[in-house]
UniProtKB/TrEMBL annotation:
Gene Ontology terms: biological process: cytoplasmic translation; translational elongation
Protein origin, superkingdom: Eukaryota
Record text on subunit structure and interactions: P1 and P2 exist as dimers at the large ribosomal subunit.
Biased composition, class Acidic residues, residue ranges: 92-104
Protein name: Large ribosomal subunit protein P1
Function: Plays an important role in the elongation step of protein synthesis.
GO CC annotation terms, alphabetical: cytosolic large ribosomal subunit
Amino acid sequence: MSTAELASSYAALILADDGVEITADKLQTLIKAAKIVDVEPIWTQLFAKALEGKDVKDLLSNVGSGGAAAAGGPAAAAGGAGGAAEEAKEEEKEEEKEESDEDMGFGLFD
């Protein structure tokens, strides 16, 4: 990762931690305050656009989660509700069936 990417990432994390909206101008201001001079404005614009309307804290807390079904499984097991875990597995199987390529008319040899 380049210095520009790291500086933009850290600046975005600082803004998110303070609860401030992440914009290119604010990222650039933080980077200049840190006396990092080799960051082109395109990096701050890209980071601001990518994080626009997103909760960075939520993104960071869900990095390792596999989705709703995976998050529901351990919680259901800890609560002692076996029925909820079975329902989550059934929903996951149904979703897998719905998303197959065959249903959309695509095939390997078309």
